[in-house]
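User: Last request for today: this protein with phosphoric acid mono(formamide)ester, please.
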Amino acid sequence: MSVKHFLDLDALDAATLNDILERAKTLKVEPKPLLAGRELAMIFEKPSTRTRVSFEVAMRQLGGHAVVLTTGDMQLGRGETYGDTAQVLSRYVDAMMIRTSSHGKLQALAEHSAVPVINGLTDRSHPCQIMADILTFEEQRGPIQGARVAWVGDANNVATSWIHAAERFGFDLHIASPKDLAPDPTLVAWAGSRLKLTRDPAEAVAGADAVVTDTWVSMGQQDADARVQALAPYQVNEALMARADKDAIFLHCLPAHRGQEVTDAVMDGPRSVVFDEAENRLHAQKGILAWCLS
Ligand code: CP
Ligand code: NVA
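Assistant: Here's the final one, the structure of the complex with phosphoric acid mono(formamide)ester:
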């Protein structure tokens, strides 16, 4: 059997993604020592709070152990290739997770790894996050299949994984973004009729079961002033939330920039489930790790 990498939601079929989600739900209620004696190496090229802690604690709850590495402290930082690094780490650990600036580095690691590789965020996507988001949605609102989700703001790496999820899990995704920060046309074509694009946040959130946003300036992006200016009309505030379904939830992968993409009133308001969502990173990681190493 080939190595079970978790690189992107569009790389896995719907049955596999549902299997991972079910494992997460089960392991949330009752963690078992499924990964006793197993080792995970985590490579960080960018900062992290949730991804780092949730993976480390998930490994421990499943009976395994994690080694946390930063590229600056590794020979990767001095030019050792991702391919060679993957071959070396494959001799020590049972799985790897990487957070990196470039999707190509993730692919190079996976191509040369004899053990599963997990995408802990790249410039393209953030699939682990969306597994936690769907877990959170289903706890709050029931099955996501057939539901409507609105994304408001920059169509960034997190939005890309939402687009993949809409196609795979079968829900409608309405994205409101400025023209220059809209999803890639190839991705739009891939997603098909599940995806609707607009420039108007009010149109995107109308009747939505969940409203989602993210930072206006992702890690490593240089054009902060221009982005903040272009995205100012896309703030999620109480007036915008009032246009969604009366039971709509608010999701944000965090970290949030309060007063920019979301107001305090929404973050701390009754529709916000952002801290349940953050907790669910832990349980989603357990589902992902259990699948990769099963
Ligand atoms: N949402 C998320 O990935 O958070 P961290 O950057 O803290 O890992
Ligand atoms: N889009 C954000 C997500 C952070 C978890 C970034 O890439 O910085």
